[in-house]
Amino acid sequence: MNKKKFLVNSILLIATALIIRSMGLAFRVYMSNTIGAEGIGLYQLILTVYMFFASVTTAGISLFVTRLVTDYLARGENGIAKRCVTLCLIISVGISTAFGIMMFAFSNELGSVFLGDSRTVLSIKILAPSLPFMAVSACLRGYFLARRSVITTSFEQLLEQLAEIAVFAILVGKLAPMGLEYACCSIVIGTTGAEIISCIYSYILYRISISKIKGKAKRVPHFLNKFTSIALPVTGSSCLRSGLSAIENSLIPTGLRKNGSNYTNALSTYGTISGMVMPIITFPAIFIMPLSTLIIPEISQAKAQNKENSVRRISERLFRIGLLYSIPVMAIMIFLSNELGTVIYNSSDVGIYIAILAPVIPLMYLDSVVDGILKGLNEQVSYLIFNFIDSVIRVILTYFLLPIMGIKGFIIVIFVSESLNTSLSIWRFLKVVQLRLKIFEWIIRPLLCVALPCLLIIMLPFKQDSILGLIIKILLSCIGYILLLYITRRNDKRFSVQKLRIE
C-alpha cells in the first residue's frame, strides 16, 4: 500500500465527510424546525421504502467494481478493467430502471397499504426516477475508489448535499403550508434532483479518467461467476436488511400506537429518535468511516498478492483504532447528552435519548470497520448471513415488544440488534484474520482514560445551552483522554504509525 497516498486520501475523505455530515446535521435541524418531529417521522417512513429500492439497485455493484478493477489494474490487465466498468454500468442502468418503474407503479400500495399513510404516496413517486441515476453514481464510485481517486467521490457527495439543501430551502416555504405531505415532497424533489446532478458530474469525470488508462477493452473472464460470488451476496444482504428494515419501521408507529400513543405522537417519537438522535450518534463516525471504505481495495490487493501477514497486521491496527476512537465518543455523548440536545435541537428529550443510546456507539463504529475488512477479504456470504439474522430478530422484537413496552421496546431492539450483529462480525473477523482480542489494552484502558476527564468537565460552570461551553468541554475531554492514554501506554512498537502499511 502506498502509505502517503492512503494518508492523503484519508484526510481528504475525512475533511469532506466532516463538511457533508455537518451540512446534513444542520439540514436536519432546519427540517425539524420547519416541519416538526411528526414531519421528520413521516419522511423517515418514506425513506424506508426508498432505501429498500436503492439497496436493490446499488448495494453490491460499487463493491464489485472496486474489487475487480483493483485486481485487474494490479495485474496490469487494463483492458479487462475498462470492460468491467462498462458491463457494470449496463447492468446497473437496466436493473435500476426496472425497479424505478416498479416503485412508481406500486407507489399507492407501498404508501397507503404497506406504510399505512397515504401522505407518503406522492413522495414515493417523486423518488422513483432517481434510482437509475443513483445506480450509475454507485457504479462509478466503485471505480473511483479502485483508482484511489477519493477527491472525486467526495466532491460528488458534497455537490449532492448542496443541491438537496438548496432545493428544499426554495420549495419548503411554498409547499409546507399545504400540509406535511407536500412538505416531504419539498425534500424528496431535492433528493431526486441531487441524484441527477451528481450522476452527470461523476460520469463526466469518469470519461476523463478512463481515457487515460491505456489498452483496449477486453472480455472479462468468468464475469457472471464473479458477479454472482461478489455482488449478489452484498446485494442480497442489503435487500434483505433494507426490506426487513422497512417492515420493522412500518411496525414502529403502529406498535407505539398500540401501546397507547396516538398516531401523531407515535410518528413524532419515531421521528425524534430515527431522524434527530441517530444523526448525532453517528456524526463522529466521519473520522473512522473513511478507513472502512479506503481499506477495501488495499486489503483486496494484499490478499490477491498472498500477503497474509500484512493483512493481519493492518487489520489488527484498524480494529484497535476503532475501539480507541469509539469508546471516548460514547463517554462524551453520555456525559454531555443534555448539552448536545439543547444546543443542537433545543430539546431536552433529544438529550435523554442520546444518553440512552450512546452505549451502542462502539458497536456501530466497530462494525463498520470490521465489515470493510471482511469485504476486502471476500467474506460477502458471512456478511449476508449475519445481516439476515440481525434483521429477522429486529422485526420479531419490534412486532412483540413495542405494543407492550412502547418506546422502551424500541430502544431494546436497537441494543439487541447492534450487539448481535457486531458480535457475529467480530467473531468472523477474529477467526478469518486469526487475531486475539486484548480486552484490557483495547477496551478497559480507554474506558478508564476517558472517564476521569469526563467527570471533571461536567463540573465546569457553563450553561447547558452554551455552544462555546459545549465545544470547550468536548475539547478538554479529548485532550485529557489523549494525555492519559499516552501516560498509561505500553512500549508497543508494533503499533507505530510507520508500520501501518501493507508491505
List keywords for this structure.
single chain, 503 residues, mainly alpha, 18 helices, 83% helix, disordered C terminus
Can you give a write-up of this model?
The protein is mostly helical. Helix content is 83%, strand content 0%. It has helices spanning 3-74, 78-105, 107-114, 121-127, 130-146, 150-175, 180-210, 223-258, 263-282, 289-304, 308-335, 337-345, 348-357, 361-376, 380-405, 407-433, 439-457, 467-487. The protein is globular. The N and C termini lie close together (7 Å). Mean pLDDT is 83; it is low at 492-503.
Q: What is the number of E strands?
A: 0
Low-confidence stretches: 492-503
How much of the polypeptide forms β-strand, as a percent range? under 5%
Order of helices and strands: HHHHHHHHHHHHHHHHHH
Q: Give the overall silhouette.
A: globular
Estimate the helix proportion, in percent: over 70%
What's the topology here?
Layout: H1 3-74, H2 78-105, H3 107-114, H4 121-127, H5 130-146, H6 150-175, H7 180-210, H8 223-258, H9 263-282, H10 289-304, H11 308-335, H12 337-345, H13 348-357, H14 361-376, H15 380-405, H16 407-433, H17 439-457, H18 467-487
Helix pairs in contact: 1-2, 1-5, 1-6, 1-7, 1-8, 1-9, 1-10, 2-5, 3-4, 4-7, 5-7, 6-7, 8-9, 8-15, 9-13, 10-11, 10-14, 11-14, 11-17, 12-13, 14-16, 15-16, 17-18
In short:
By secondary structure, this protein is an all-alpha fold. It is built from 18 helices and no strands. The C terminus is likely disordered.
